[in-house]
Here is the input.
Amino acid sequence: MRLLLQPPLTPDVLAQEIELRRAAGLMTKARADGFDGVWFTGGDPTVHKDLPKLLLLARKLGFERIQIGTNAVRLADLTYARRLKDSGLNYARVSLHAASAPLHDELLVLPGAFDAAVAAIGHLRKLGVYVGLNFVVTARNYKELPAFFRFCVKDLGIRDFDVIFLHHRGMMELNGPKHAVRYSEAAPYLREAFKVYDEAGSRPDTPTLINVPPASSPSSSRGSRTGPWKRPTTRSRSRRTSRSTCTR
Here is the structure.
């Protein structure tokens, strides 16, 4: 497996926006080196004016998986969602951090973000773009885990989502003490959440716990879900994926 590491997220890096020419050069080299997937992250890549061009270039270069990580607010605009799909987007990882609007919108400090994300998920799926979800666990939302699992499985019909505990890298080196939650505090809510998921029936490789020691992971009939200590080989991370960071 080939790994492509991101540079440290310093304030200087966060203030930059990757230029089209530089991004094109990185993707061209990655494809020549044998990578078959590209993942645009941020910030949020949908605020980058050249994202459609970058997606189109990724498709022309022959990348199989062309993915974005996004809060999906802009994708609530069906015209924009269709433009990205037509440019080459075939996989979206949507960040959803609660089962209802008040808490999600509070965490993003963006009124209307939850409703926009839900609308965007509907648009993307109708357009044929694969959608997975990311739930970042914080001190504000960890008790929401059972409701979030129920909302994903029963309301959205999505069974591919990652539950991500904070790790003290990048900006979390500064904000970790304020937002992090202890595994022991979250564990009862995780166990209840996995019961909801298992009772509904699911693929055996999702959801995945990220940044959780194996000893702290809930077990079920499908075994522990942990990461990055043990990741399923059927997931995207078994592929060679080049990551481009599009910051504001």
Q: What stands out?
A: The longest strand covers residues 130-137. The domain at 11-245 is CATH 3.20.20.70 (TIM Barrel). Confidence is low (pLDDT under 50) at residues 1-7, 221-239. The CA atoms of residues 78 and 116 lie 11 Å apart.
